[in-house]
Amino acid sequence: MTTSTNTGAALPTTCDVLIVGAGFGGLYMLHKLRQLGFDAHVIEAAAGVGGTWYWNRYPGARCDIESIQYSYSFDDELQQEWNWSERYAAQPEILAYAEHVADRFGLRSGITFSTRVTATTYDAARNLWMIDTDRGAQVNARFCIAAVGCLSTPQVPSWPGVENFAGEIYHPGAWPHEGVDLRGKRVAVIGTGSSGIQIISAIADEVEHLTVFQRTPTFAFPAHNRPLSPEDLAAAKARYSEIREAARRAPQGRAFATEGRPLLGDTPDQRDEVLRRYWAMGGLDFTKAYDDISSVLEADAVAADFVRDRISEVVQDPAKREVLLPRGHPISAKRPCLEINYFASFNRPNVEIVDVRANPIVEVTATGIRTTAATHDVDVIIVATGYDAMTGTLLRLGVVGRDGVALTEAWAAGPRTYLGVLVDGFPNFFIVAGPGSPSVFSNVILAIEQHVDWISDLLTFARSAEADLVEADPAAAQEWTAHVTDIGERTFLSLGNSWYRGANIPGKPQVVMPYVGGTHVYRDKCDAVAAAGYPGVSIS
Ligand code: N01
């Protein structure tokens, strides 16, 4: 039975599995479950597929995992037929890829677009999830799978007076589809994370004046992006299975180059040669050049000095350089960025840097931004201030589990999961690539594939056992979460104020949320649980 909507597929009133989100997680989840004979349906808030790549249409938006690796591996024909045009794909190309996947596998017939989930309530008497939407319709499903992404709820700080600003305000994650004409305008960018630095590089030469408000200077490495030639593509495709296997066995879900030895064991000349070589290659492998850059402070200090030296070679103005040089935390305490002419942008006379750690923003006025040191009049403010990451969107689904307990209550001290997939007290509810799993701490597409496959195996296992209830044991969830936290707190992530640990959201519990013990280690743990008949999960 169905109720009709005029946006995508009609919303069913019932289905076996309701999936929330049509990004890379939801698309593959739908495909896989259909193949296994489940009646699955997707609800998506956007008017199209692609998730993060649907929303993030800001100038310069690009992925910093190489396109050959940041793509699905589940279908060899798909990976052989798709031709990436650049080493690092830009947003329009990644969105086109998501659309291609949706069409190629006939997925749109199972997706209702432009519909937001407003409440997700478990009815224990019927063992069903009741999913309410902003269209008034409700879907009843035995299983509910949240594939909502980790960076999908934009965070805008509540500066006093922001409602009085007479100009335009934009967040990168909700960029207007028709684009924004910034030519000849005075533009402020607040935030110098991955989104901010891409925007700054992309718009520096078209705006009249660009004022960058920086709180924490950014460790960024050159991307050395370039077109992929037919020869590049042929070479990658010829060894695709090898590349994918290396990625699956890699700590962060992507094949990488490394010297495979500690920096501290090398002489200064050797270190310089190695670091220069990785810098010249470009990409995130810089932190992988040596085994200890991301784990031993003394090694990090050498690499950080090297980065500062390279930035100093680019930025000509000593005052700007002083503000831009990253200091105060190890490189891997926050997400390192890739840059294309970011530091060089500050050599333009129309690009200004404002240190808001030294002089914080006091208020937004009708005409601009006032810090403790000065007032900056602007026409447009771009708030590249990040996301309520990892838990923000999940908690906004209004999830209420067994005994009327809300997920917001259950997770008041931070996310608690079993293997990042199941939540105790929330039967038949699953999360794709969220907190407690490698997700954003890895090449997220391979992380998604691993989760989708694992959840599908579990549902198939339950179906063969004629079971219709799957739930994490509280002790297993507690033990897993303690393990995730323990590993996280022993890494450099505990030393930075990053979104990985909720530090960017006032009042949010500060705990390292992704599993950072290695994608390959995690995969083995999940496989072992499945092979042993799912200890830690009640299946009845
Ligand atoms: O967000 P962020 P993002 N006053 O949280 C600053 C992925 N991604 O959207 O560091 C002033 O990283 C904040 O300062 P501080 C990627 O995983 C990938 O850029 O908190 N400033 C910081 O500079 C990434 O990590 C790609 O001191 C304030 C910035 O805003 C994640 O998404 C591209 C402030 C926020 O940086 C998020 O990136 C884009 C305030 N009140 C995104 N509040 C690629 O693949 C925050 N800031 C390339």
Automatic annotation (TrEMBL):
Q: Which keywords describe this protein according to UniProt?
A: FAD, Flavoprotein, Monooxygenase, NADP, Oxidoreductase
Keyword Coiled coil applies: no
Signal sequence, renumbered to the chain: none
- Name any cofactors this protein relies on: FAD
Gene3D superfamilies in UniProt: FAD/NAD(P)-binding domain
Keyword Ligase in the entry? The reply is no
Q: Which Pfam families match?
A: Pyr_redox_3
Domain of life where this protein originates: Bacteria
Q: Give the family from UniProt.
A: Belongs to the FAD-binding monooxygenase family.
PANTHER family assigned: L-ORNITHINE N(5)-MONOOXYGENASE-RELATED
Q: What is this protein called?
A: NAD(P)/FAD-dependent oxidoreductase
The species is Sporichthya brevicatena
> Upper lineage ranks?
Bacteria, Bacillati, Actinomycetota, Actinomycetes, Sporichthyales
